[in-house]
Specification:
By secondary structure, the chain is α/β, with parallel strands linked by helices. The chain has 2 domains: about 240 residues, 3-Layer(aba) Sandwich (Rossmann fold), CATH 3.40.50; about 120 residues, Distorted Sandwich (Coagulation Factor XIII, Chain A, domain 1). Helix content is about 25%, strand content about 30%. The protein has 8 helices and 19 strands. The strands form 4 sheets. A 6-stranded mixed beta sheet has the order 5-6-7-3-8-9, sandwiched between helices. Strands 12, 14, 15, 17, 18 and 19 form a 6-stranded mixed beta sheet that branches. Strand 6, helix 6 and strand 7 form a beta-alpha-beta unit.
Length: about 400
């Protein structure tokens, strides 16, 4: 069976020079003056048709280098070979192929030609591209006059309206404002349902696990793990928790300024026992923690999922709960209003300082609509000397010998 993507000893090395004249000196003396950086070590990889592959790793790990080689915008070192079966479309640096002096219309035709479409084929797709981008009145203007939002709308529309066999996504699952973010996400999920091959690179491990069939963990230009998403991401999470960069939990960093036509948190109240407010004191295995959330959503969409995360002060994601995972459906309201409450009875957290995040997610529990970070600080104390993060139900049996 022919693979959609086949890499054989693909790698990438860069040379840098401390001074401009070092390059000339190297030519004249035949002695290297360059610092060699191995961005991607020789890699052999086969991805079958229809597979959704997640790629995770810290910044500078080599993820984008790999995706650019697959997309054909970067060449592998000598000896490496990349074979791609089918039309490929990449969401790498959105709009990076646009010419700023050309109009939106002209850039659509230029981008289509770059990926091998004929003028007639672009003619057929043009109206769909413009309709999806929602910037029809600006298509005859130079793209240098576009706002950043208009720029990425058009780039996303071009990349996804060409009906590719292989789609590459590098941190671009949602772009633009709330409404367009939802539409762009739905477009990508349609590709998944149509059994397109997808390479999805993201720092949102939750989305990677929900969407992907397989995950590659890359570090220092080499594949550390390749396999089942849950297993690979568990190992990667452990790696992050042990590194200095693991200062924040895996919660998407999303602007809260524009969530029209999706969902928005309007009020949050947290309390325990007789306390309420933004700082609560709890006792291990004694205090009940309650979180109440009011929100609004677009009534033309399915009601969203509500989720709560508890995060330790050092950034460790301790626990989470969602209406989706627990099998609760938020009822549809004709005006798009909702209220939910969540209670953690006799909360089992051990002593320490924690905080709470609130999330509103699409009905499939994948695409984030809104988020409220660090809505309350929790100070937990305990009577015993038990160590760890939580106290688990347990029983001792002691036998007479």
């Amino acid at each position: 069976m022919i693979s959609a993507i086949s890499l054989q000893s693909v790698g990438k090395t860069y040379k840098t020079y401390a001074h401009g004249w070092d390059r000339l000196w190297e030519i004249l003396t035949y002695r290297t003056r360059a610092h060699v950086f191995q961005a991607l070590h020789p890699m052999t990889l086969h991805i079958p048709h229809g597979q959704v592959v997640g790629i995770v790793g810290k910044n500078g790990a080599g993820k984008s280098t790999l995706l650019k080689i697959v997309a054909g915008t970067l060449n592998s070192d000598l000896g490496g070979e990349c074979q791609v079966s089918g039309r490929i479309s990449a969401l790498l640096e959105l709009g990076s192929g646009f010419h700023p002096e050309m109009t939106g219309r002209e850039n659509v035709y230029l981008s289509g030609a770059v990926i091998g479409l004929s003028v007639a084929e672009i003619d057929e797709l043009y109206d769909d591209i413009v309709a999806f981008s929602e910037i029809k009145e600006f298509m005859e203007q130079p793209v240098k006059t576009y706002s950043s939002g208009m720029f990425v709308r058009l780039a996303f529309a071009v990349a996804t309206c060409v009906n590719p066999d292989i789609l590459i996504i590098d941190e671009a699952l949602s772009v633009g404002d709330g409404a367009f973010a939802r539409k762009s996400f739905d477009r990508i999920m349609q590709f998944r349902e149509a059994k397109k091959t997808i390479l999805f690179c993201s720092h949102s491990l939750y989305q990677v696990e929900m969407i992907c069939d397989r995950v590659l963990w890359i570090d220092k230009g080499q594949v550390q793990k390749d396999g089942n998403p849950a297993q690979v991401l568990a190992d990667y999470n452990e790696f992050l928790n042990g590194s200095e960069s693991a200062a924040q939990p895996d919660i998407p960093n999303v602007s809260l300024t524009s969530f029209q036509k999706t969902a928005r948190i309007t009020h949050i109240e947290t309390r325990t026992d007789e306390q309420s407010g933004d700082h609560l004191c709890l006792q291990t295995a004694q205090s009940d923690l309650s979180v109440e959330i009011d929100f609004v959503f677009d009534p033309s969409l399915p009601p969203p999922v509500a989720a709560v995360s508890i995060v330790r002060k050092d950034g460790l994601l301790v626990a989470s709960a969602s209406t989706h995972n627990d099998g609760y459906n938020i009822p549809h309201h004709p005006e798009g209003k909702a209220h939910v409450s969540l209670t953690f009875p006799q909360i089992p957290l051990l002593k320490g300082n924690y905080t709470i995040y609130i999330h509103l997610i699409c009905e499939n529990a994948i695409h984030l609509y809104d988020q409220a970070a660090s809505v309350v600080s929790l100070e937990v104390s305990q009577q015993g000397v038990e160590q760890g993060v939580v106290t688990l139900p347990h029983q001792w049996q002691i036998s007479d010998l």
